[in-house]
Amino acid sequence: MELNKLEEIFQTIYGKKNEFSFFSPGRINLIGEHIDYNGGLVFPCALDFGTYALVNLREDNKLNFASTNFDLKVSCDLNNLVYTKKDDWANYPKGVIKIMLDKGYTVKGMDILISGNIPNGAGLSSSASLEVLTSVVVNNLFNDGKIDRVELVKISQMAENEFVGVNCGIMDQFAVGMGKTNKAILLDCNSLSYKYADMNLLDYSIVIMNTNKRRALNESKYNERRAECEEALKIIQTKKPVANLCKLTPEEFHEVEPLLTKDNIKNRAKHAVYENDRVISAFDCLNDGKLEEFGRLLMESHDSLKNLYEVTGKELDSLVEEALKAEGCIGARMTGAGFGGCAIALVKTDKIDSFTEEVKKAYTERIGYEPSFYSSGIGNGTHQIY
Ligand code: GLA
């Protein structure tokens, strides 16, 4: 929705013009999946669609939240911020504000209108977008913009882990908060050191493909994978002192592999180690303009997530298989947590139209409903518009 339309809606809801507005992107991850919580390297970038916040200050301690995406409006008091199931989406901003208050930062009453154009439940980080958005609103309006950006990223992850109760890693919040136009971020999730790479895709583009698989109960699977990786690490640590799975090179993993006698545990660990290795190669390929090689790494990543990590499912697999059959596509993989949601494809820019047509037709025949396609620029991290 256009900003001026949102300003009208704000005025209708709150009876006044908004003074401030902010934007926070969604993200895709190019490669490095399910390894942020294994101390690995990830390679995400921020999108140019995301979430807006229009804000006014209040004289009291009230927080009013409204959204153009959901009917639900939520009002609460700054001194009594607790997770409530019925508050649904508003628990994300509530959680961030609660954690910032607990850490001693200043927060005052606000009227807020949220509006997102990230498809909900598509795995493009609509929740991280909203969390980091809230932290930047609070930083800029009440703390002179002085809180370090990485601290805001950590607060946002903490809100999701501790307030909402989702045990995610740090990749999404980091990508949303630290994104830069036309850059991908190589992030070491262990040390939080990072560097940017130019998204120089020559005559190729990234196409985002949504399976449109209805949101299922994935949370338990996500936590199950985390637990399996922890189990693998514990076993490996009985023979080799290593802080996390991604500290192992493929050669080192080969030596300890016989210790992992359960197939699922071995496979999860193997994915983590080799995926981390692929991220290092992918970063080099992108820098050196070796896009065919980059595309091949995307395919290897998807295969590993399908066969070793088992987080894809028939919708994502069909979408990726059909994408790879289409002319002009040199690589594709799921992105995000998996079990549905989105995949990305690296496609010759002048073939995008025929590509989407072919993939749409073939996927619909196989799955029974249509996928969606988005093209997005690589945008900046969360920022104030005015
Ligand atoms: C979700 C989580 C991230 C990360 C990805 C998988 O998006 O929020 O922390 O674990 O899944 O790479």
TrEMBL record:
<comment type="similarity">
    <text>Belongs to the GHMP kinase family. GalK subfamily.</text>
</comment>
<feature type="binding site">
    <location>
        <begin position="33"/>
        <end position="36"/>
    </location>
    <ligand>
        <name>substrate</name>
    </ligand>
</feature>
<feature type="binding site">
    <location>
        <begin position="121"/>
        <end position="127"/>
    </location>
    <ligand>
        <name>ATP</name>
    </ligand>
</feature>
<keyword id="KW-0418">Kinase</keyword>
<dbReference type="GO" id="GO:0006012">
    <property type="term" value="P:galactose metabolic process"/>
</dbReference>
<dbReference type="InterPro" id="IPR014721">
    <property type="entry name" value="Ribsml_uS5_D2-typ_fold_subgr"/>
</dbReference>
<dbReference type="InterPro" id="IPR036554">
    <property type="entry name" value="GHMP_kinase_C_sf"/>
</dbReference>
<dbReference type="InterPro" id="IPR020568">
    <property type="entry name" value="Ribosomal_Su5_D2-typ_SF"/>
</dbReference>
<keyword id="KW-0479">Metal-binding</keyword>
<dbReference type="GO" id="GO:0004335">
    <property type="term" value="F:galactokinase activity"/>
</dbReference>
<keyword id="KW-0067">ATP-binding</keyword>
<feature type="binding site">
    <location>
        <position position="160"/>
    </location>
    <ligand>
        <name>Mg(2+)</name>
    </ligand>
</feature>
<protein>
    <recommendedName>
        <fullName>Galactokinase</fullName>
        <ecNumber>2.7.1.6</ecNumber>
    </recommendedName>
</protein>
<comment type="pathway">
    <text>Carbohydrate metabolism; galactose metabolism.</text>
</comment>
<keyword id="KW-0119">Carbohydrate metabolism</keyword>
<feature type="domain" description="GHMP kinase N-terminal">
    <location>
        <begin position="91"/>
        <end position="180"/>
    </location>
</feature>
<dbReference type="GO" id="GO:0000287">
    <property type="term" value="F:magnesium ion binding"/>
</dbReference>
<feature type="domain" description="Galactokinase N-terminal">
    <location>
        <begin position="9"/>
        <end position="55"/>
    </location>
</feature>
<feature type="site" description="Transition state stabilizer">
    <location>
        <position position="27"/>
    </location>
</feature>
<dbReference type="Pfam" id="PF08544">
    <property type="entry name" value="GHMP_kinases_C"/>
</dbReference>
<feature type="binding site">
    <location>
        <position position="67"/>
    </location>
    <ligand>
        <name>ATP</name>
    </ligand>
</feature>
<feature type="binding site">
    <location>
        <position position="222"/>
    </location>
    <ligand>
        <name>substrate</name>
    </ligand>
</feature>
<dbReference type="Pfam" id="PF10509">
    <property type="entry name" value="GalKase_gal_bdg"/>
</dbReference>
<dbReference type="Pfam" id="PF00288">
    <property type="entry name" value="GHMP_kinases_N"/>
</dbReference>
<dbReference type="InterPro" id="IPR006203">
    <property type="entry name" value="GHMP_knse_ATP-bd_CS"/>
</dbReference>
<keyword id="KW-0547">Nucleotide-binding</keyword>
<keyword id="KW-0299">Galactose metabolism</keyword>
<dbReference type="InterPro" id="IPR013750">
    <property type="entry name" value="GHMP_kinase_C_dom"/>
</dbReference>
<dbReference type="GO" id="GO:0005829">
    <property type="term" value="C:cytosol"/>
</dbReference>
<dbReference type="InterPro" id="IPR006204">
    <property type="entry name" value="GHMP_kinase_N_dom"/>
</dbReference>
<dbReference type="InterPro" id="IPR022963">
    <property type="entry name" value="Galactokinase_bac"/>
</dbReference>
<dbReference type="GO" id="GO:0005524">
    <property type="term" value="F:ATP binding"/>
</dbReference>
<dbReference type="InterPro" id="IPR000705">
    <property type="entry name" value="Galactokinase"/>
</dbReference>
<dbReference type="InterPro" id="IPR006206">
    <property type="entry name" value="Mevalonate/galactokinase"/>
</dbReference>
<dbReference type="InterPro" id="IPR019539">
    <property type="entry name" value="GalKase_N"/>
</dbReference>
<comment type="function">
    <text>Catalyzes the transfer of the gamma-phosphate of ATP to D-galactose to form alpha-D-galactose-1-phosphate (Gal-1-P).</text>
</comment>
<feature type="domain" description="GHMP kinase C-terminal">
    <location>
        <begin position="285"/>
        <end position="363"/>
    </location>
</feature>
<feature type="binding site">
    <location>
        <position position="127"/>
    </location>
    <ligand>
        <name>Mg(2+)</name>
    </ligand>
</feature>
<keyword id="KW-0460">Magnesium</keyword>
<keyword id="KW-0808">Transferase</keyword>
<dbReference type="InterPro" id="IPR019741">
    <property type="entry name" value="Galactokinase_CS"/>
</dbReference>
<keyword id="KW-0963">Cytoplasm</keyword>
